[in-house]
Each structure stands twice: as structure tokens, then as C-alpha cells.
Amino acid sequence: xxxxxxxxxxxxxxxxxxxxxxxxxxxxxxxxxxxxxxxxxxxxxxxxxxxxxxxxxxxxxxxxxxxxxxxxxxxxxxxxxxxxxxxxxxxxxxxxxxxxxxxxxxxxxxxxxxxxxxxxxxxxxxxxxxxxxxxxxxxxxxxxxxxxxxxxxxxxxxxxxxxxxxxxxxxxxxxxxxxxxxxxxxxxxxxxxxxxxxxxxxxxxxxxxxxxxxxxxxxxxxxxxxxxxxxxxxxxxxxxxxxxxxxxxxxxxxxxxxxxxxxxxxxxxxxxxxxxxxxxxxxxxxxxxxxxxxxxxxxxxxxxxxxxxxxxxxxxxxxxxxxxxxxxxxxxxxx
Length: 335
Prior knowledge:
The chain is of the alpha+beta class. 52% of the residues lie in helices and 16% in strands. The chain is elongated.
């Protein structure tokens, strides 16, 4: 029976200690405390939910100020340092809140700019107290001691360098989204970019251009009188160029690289007719100074046909290769 009472008393003491710990965190010891600011921020956000227009924005703005102030106060009472630096972990948390508040938006709370500026803002928040001397009620500006200036400069410069590297990541990510054909390039000689996946063998946008262009050209040539087709081939550069621009406008509109693709034909005489090569040429940056292009060859030949009235005429027949060829180097000259 005594053991049972001891166990019950132990559980009671544990619950009492847990309650005391929770109470210490949640109940402000006085009106002017970090808990008060946190509660004011929650209260402001609840009010902003029911408000509209600029009143809502003002209340939400105050809520952010209360949250940042309360968090900064709480995390600096007994600061835990980032290993290897004198930067408090609280400055990192506060810097994140300040960055989200300053550079976030309602659609995307965390934006690339928020992440990029987070380290630098955290370093500045860490450095600000070094320029203030005194207490909360009696404070004045001061110039840090020479040894303190050195560590402040090192910390701020290091965080700015980290921000630059994060910005470089977002720049590269944006380039690869807007210019996906770069993923088929070779980055072995790059000192900054490390490929984590295997490269694409052929740039997909170049393939899209060729595949969408082929039926348009076939439609303009197939079963037309041979004499008209020969005149068309004499003006193939303009004809194919116009069709290529239409294909690029319709299929690559979402990519910035749409202006870095050029469509050209190459026409070669053969005994039975002509070889029409459709070229999708990349004129953007490349690790190969000679560039590259994709090619699809089509045979254009005359064949005999009979009209509905029974008249025998010669029309054009076109047959294109099933596969595209990826060729590193400049395209062949116009003939």
C-alpha cells in the first residue's frame, strides 16, 4: 500500500513540475515581457482575419512587429551560440522572421529573396548590439573595440558570401528552368556547377521544334504539283523559316530560350529529286564553341499521279527520317 502511495505521489510531483514549467513559459512574470509580445502578435493576426482592406494590412503589420520583438527578446535572454561563431541562434531565428516579413508575400511566404538575405540579416542583427552601450532605459551608441570590429566584419562578410552562393544557386536554377537546353551541355570544366544527374543526350526543345515542324513541311509539299514544289524549294529558306518561327512561338512560348533557336533548311540535289534537311540550330551559350544543331532529313521525289478527271500529272512525294540527328558543330553552309 505504501508503494502505491509513493508511486501516486511521484506521478503527482511530475505533473506538478510539468505544470510549473508550462506556466513559467506561458504566463508572463510581468506585463513587460516577451510572452506579452507573442500574445499580442497572435491577437493581431486573429483580428486581421476579420478585418478587410488597409485596416487588415495595418493589423497584420503590427502582428509581425510583435512576433519579431517577442522572438528576439526570448532568444537573447539566455543565448545559445551557433557553433564556431558568436552569433546567437536567436539572431538566426529573428533574421528569418525579419526576412519573411520584409520580402515574403501572401502567395509565397518564403521566396528566393527571403532565403538569400536571411544569413546577411541575421549577421546584422548579431552586430547591432555591439554598437549599443548601456541598459534598456539608458543606452547610447558606441564604436566597438578593435578586436570586436574584426570579428563583426568577419561574421558579416562570411554571411554575405553565403548569401551570394545561395543567390548563385537560385540563378542557376532559374537558368535551367528558362533555358532547359543547357541541361544537354557539358559542365565538366565548370568550377561552380556540379551535375548530380546524367546529362540529357539531346536538348528536348530542339526535338520539339523538329517534330512539330515536320508535319507542317510535309503538308506544304506532299501531293503538290512537282513544278510548284521545285519553286517552293528554291524559296525554302523563307518557307521553312516562317514555319519554324510559328512552331517556336506556339511550343516554346513559356521558355526564355525561345529566341536562341533558329530554324533553317538545307536543300541538296540528288538523281531522283532532292534532299531537304530541316535544321534546328542552337545559337545560345555552349561549352562547344562551334555550337550544335539537330537535323531531320527528308527525301522529296516526283511521282506519277492521276487526277479525278483522268489526267496524268507529276506530284511530289516526301518521306522524312524517323529519328533526329544531334550534331556538335556549326551547320553546313547554304548552297
